[in-house]
Design brief:
Blueprint: H1 2-27, E1 34-36, H2 41-50, E2 53-54, H3 55-58, H4 63-83, E3 92-99, E4 105-112, H5 121-134, E5 145-152
Parallel strand pairs: 1-4, 2-5
Antiparallel strand pairs: 3-4, 3-5
């Protein structure tokens, strides 16, 4: 009888320890910064609501300036891919970028276009994740902002207003 009681107490202690530790594990998980369009719809909807200022507004409703900033971002991504020894030639994406007020990229949500080069897009996801960690946009604004656009590599557009890289 005493043996059963000891085993029961140990079992209860073990179960309590597991259940107590579980919320801590969940709290330590970092949010995913890069994901596919359609992969996490709830998070995506929150991003759209929270980053509701468009790049166009950040650029004072100037289409050339907005295009220039988008082109510079794509060229910087292309340069990052070259430095990372990752060939982006022929890659075509729908790309949603979400910036913080200070110009850091908080999130990228993307999906390959049907006419994009055939490759493992999980590798593109890794590349974009590393790009997010290191990229700093020259743009700053008083709110978070975003842009929904298209990307094709290599980037052929040239800077209209700003410096060319």
């Amino acid at each position: 009888m005493i043996g059963r009681t000891s085993v029961s107490i140990l079992l209860l202690f073990f179960l309590y320890t597991i259940s107590y530790a579980q919320p801590k594990l969940v709290a330590d998980v970092q949010p995913v910064k890069v994901f596919y369009i359609g992969e996490d719809e709830k998070n995506y909807e929150k991003l759209v609501q929270n980053y509701n200022t468009m790049l166009f507004a950040v650029c004072n409703n100037n289409m050339e300036q907005a295009f220039d900033n988008w082109s510079v971002l794509l060229k910087d991504l292309e340069d990052f891919s070259i430095a990372s020894n990752f060939d982006m030639k022929g890659v075509k994406l729908w790309l949603n970028v979400f910036w913080s007020k200070d110009g850091n990229i908080d999130y990228i949500v993307f999906y390959p276009k049907p006419n994009s080069r055939n490759l493992n897009y999980d590798d593109v996801k890794i590349l974009l994740t590393n790009f997010v960690k290191s990229y700093q946009s020259p743009l700053k604004y008083n709110t978070k902002f975003s842009h929904y656009g298209s990307a094709a590599f290599p980037v052929f557009s040239k800077s209209v207003i700003g410096r060319e890289k």
